[in-house]
Amino acid sequence: MAGINKSTIARKVAMALSGLFLVLFLAQHLTINFTTVVSPSTFNELSHFMGTNFVVQAILQPILIAGVIFHFVMGFVLEIRNSKARAVSYKKFNGAANSTWMSRNMIISGIVVLAFLGLHFYDFWIPELVHKYVESHPDDPYRYYDETIAKFAGDPIRTGLYVFAFIFLMLHLLHGFASSFQTLGAKNKYQKGLAGYKSGTSKLIRNLTTAYAIVVPMGFVFIALYHYFNNL
Amino acid sequence: MSVLESKIPEGPIEKKWTKHKNEIDLVNPANKRNIDIIVVGTGLAGGSAAATLAELGYNVKTFCYQDSPRRAHSIAAQGGINASKNYQGDGDSDYRLFYDTVKGGDYRSREANVYRLAEVSGNIIDQCVAQGVPFAREYGGLLDNRSFGGVLVSRTFYAKGQTGQQLLLGAYSAMNRQINRGKIQAFNRHEMMDLVLVDGKARGIIARNLVSGEIERHSAHAVVLASGGYGNVFYLSTNAMGSNVMAAWRAHKKGAFFANPCFTQIHPTCIPVSGDLQSKLTLMSESLRNDGRIWVPKKEEDAKAIREGKLKPTELGEDDRDYYLERRYPAFGNLVPRDVASRAAKERCDAGYGVNKTGQAVYLDFKAAIERYGKEKAFTSGHKNPSEDEIIKLGEEVVESKYGNLFEMYEKITDQNPYKTPMMIFPAVHYTMGGLWVDYNLMTTIPGCYAAGEANFSDHGANRLGASALMQGLADGYFVLPYTIGDYLADDIRTGEISTDTEEFETAEREVKERIQKLFDANGKNPVDYYHKKLGKIMWNKCGMSRNEKELKEAMEEIKELRDDFWANVKLTGKAEAKNQELEKAGRVADFLELGELFAKDALERNESCGGHFREEYQTEDGEALRDDENYKFVSAWEFVGNPRDAKLHKEKLEFDNIELKTRSYK
Amino acid sequence: MKLKLKIWRQEDAQDQGGFQDYTVDGIDGDMSFLEMLDVLNNDLVNDGKEPVEFDHDCREGICGSCCLQINGEPHGPDRLITTCQLHMRKFNDGDEIVIEPFRATAFPVIKDLVIDRSSFDRIQHAGGYISVNTSGNTQDANSIPIEKEKADDSFYAATCIGCGACVAACKNASAMLFTSAKVSQLALLPQGEIEAHDRVLNMVHQMDKEGFGNCTNTGACEIECPKGISLENIARMNREYLSASVAG
Description:
By secondary structure, chain B is of the alpha/beta class. Chain B has helices spanning 16-23, 29-32, 44-56, 94-104, 111-131, 163-181, 246-253, 300-307, 324-328, 338-353, 367-380, 388-414, 469-489, 503-521, 528-542, 549-569, 581-605, 629-632; strands at residues 36-40, 59-63, 81-82, 156-157, 184-187, 190-198, 201-209, 215-219, 222-225, 258-259, 264-270, 293-297, 321-322, 362-365, 423-432, 435-436, 449-451, 526-527, 570-571, 634-639, 648-653. Chain B has 3 domains: 16-263 and 433-492, FAD/NAD(P)-binding domain (3-Layer(bba) Sandwich); 267-429, Flavocytochrome C3, Chain A, domain 1 (Alpha-Beta Complex), CATH 3.90.700.10; 503-631, Up-down Bundle (Methane Monooxygenase Hydroxylase, Chain G, domain 1), CATH 1.20.58.100.
């Protein structure tokens, strides 16, 4: 880790790697969540496994949390350094002329996602810890589905917040996922800018990352809305 | 024997340079560390000289007025660089390159120098490739060549339309390596204000820090001037806005002779002047003349209607067009050399047939080429009965593949589509063959003061061939000067550091400051540009593409008057001790106002027409240049003696032992 | 055309600076943007006021001197051009034009619109070269054939004019496009391979030391680059940097 702060490129690479790791995690999270729509019992099984398996709990979970913390702390570090790189700012800066909103506002979409993470922890993780370690309830492999659904049922505000956050996650991914390949030095031929939808890193990377950036957050949105409307 | 000692080595021409290198004195590596050299200007010649001198071990200080050496105007050269590599196997050789250059220069250059230039030309390409200059290559991975005007072989190496840029960045990178080693100290945003002589030898310069306005003293054992040409004496030229003659002119006033100032190249294919407030002219590559046909309307009333916007060129039928180059020079047609093409355009415009709002432009028409290429393309692709539209479409594609980027540039500047309407072009000042007189070692008449690149007069005679400027700049800087300067410096190994706390530096600095003060003390009526534009008009109208005795005499008077008016009435703003672009311009224009007069005098004294110098009195019956080898086969080297008009002429006789003198004819 | 100009004026590096309003009249569409400023300056000098200082030299888009941020974009609204190649026909009568210097901490203002880009030079000093002496007996230029595609890519990277538009356009004031152009040019050629590792490490180190920001791949640099230098070069530099770091 010592080398990470030694150059702009090293910092960016660390950012890209942690980002990619989180992107992978999202896929896993979405897969499990999706089972709530098709098979509550599978959801319960998987949740129970994740919540009790030693490897997941003692090794993967801390890595994930470290990854999240690293990614956002580094994001702030970069933002501060970058604003120092232009001590006197422009009176008029027409960023829209040459780059996408997403690429210029990763800090904003990132903060929204981070705030959402707070809410999400408040909703699920903290109650889970309390349930397991503070109140020391016995294992109940069937509780997860109902607990989860209960959060959305009859709560339009929470559902709305989730949807809002996932839209920002999408914006974050639309730039971030493709960007990480560029940072890692993927061999690409570009047409015009990494940023635009129609162009960017080699077509394949661009199309795959764009599809992913839309499908995954929209999947979460779908699940939240599904349960909300199913429980009206 | 005159004071001009050219120091040309004895022996057969192809042995002279080797023999000279073997015989001149060298400075041993340990002693080089104790010797300082100042290089003024960081273009191809200055940048390459600075880097090479530093590699050899000398302590080099470079000076440029730009914010970085990389911005010197060598960067703007488009076409290419010649070298007698004979990679194409088309019979090229050092002799042929030498011959073409001497002939192209209308037999007014020094044989030995030109031969040396041809001899080292191949080394330049090797050196640049080793530095990472990305020259154009063929699919087989080897270097590509193109051909240029006035020669029968393909010897021009190029990097798209940016050859000058790539070569300059090569020299700049070589400099950077030495800066990183601490062997070059780069003084950017510094302008040389005067040369300092100690005991008759060049020992330093006075420079102005253009950011702080501070006047600084810098000493050295030798001073190299690589400060470029003086085309901006015409105000409008293809030179950079800041290109100036100050360094060379200051040296001239301190004793360096100025050679052939009237030899100026006027390039025929530039984008015409669009209005009075224009600041700069843009060149269109000479290659366009391969396919474009040049014409003006045959009838004066048509030309008038076009100028007034009532008639479009495309509406004019073939019979109403005058393809005057094809008419006058059936053998070479649109491909006559630069000087001939330029004069012919001026002749038509002066006669009232010019187009554009100003009447100062001629057409360069690609319609015939588009049709020709279109038909060929249709035929080769098996299209038997193509319609008119299809032919034009195919033809435009071919033309685009050849000249696309130039057409784009033209459209950006003029907002006209050259595929649909003919381009307009007009000649513009481009390069100055004249410059400081130097001997075979590139030393001026001031001991220890050298001149390299466009700043010296040496290799192009009265007219320069395309793609030869880059060659000469780099030859001087990489391969000639670093050797020859050792011959002089060998006597300086015991001199020790030159102190700047001497009377000579003191006086020079005081004079510079007084001169600046004098500019501020003027009455403040007219801005600097007012004078520069006026000077440019005089130069263009009376010392331009064709000259005559009466007008040259008028020009000398008018320039003198303008100079007096300038010193009495110029208006400056701001302070001397701060960044001040008006002051920078004023200093440069002040020198142009002196050089201009010498320019006119030189043109007046040279009673012949040769190369870029055309005297109306000396022409054949059908209006061609009439050279006078009997009386003017010499270099005019002018010694400053108080006033430009009183300059004293010294003649360096030119000997042609290896080339037979002939009349250039393009009929 | 008559135009309203809002121009950044700053006495020297120490001065705070601020905007001033000017009006210019009689502007023709065929004039370049800098010629429009010449008109303004001529008026100012005639009024005995100090003209607006701006860097410019070749006025044909190759020297890289001009560096104006016009209405929030480096070199103005047009593409693939420098300020000197921007023509007034891109504007309309009565327009207000905001003119600022390129802004970055590593590009301090010297005066008005003139900035100090010596940080770019120092990045080049750190390794933007191939270590070869001028001897006159370097091996023949054709002794190492180079694949045309690589030679062309190297050339495209080498067309950088060092104007700083990439830094100016970047919301982070990052100099990655500039630095990567030189790294790429030399890394693509066999001549440059030998020093490739040291070069990329040293140049990036210097780039960071100068205080340029981090690249976040917005791509603005490429869009605003007058020479259209590709983002591909940044990816290549990242690659070079990573392999050099791994190699130690």
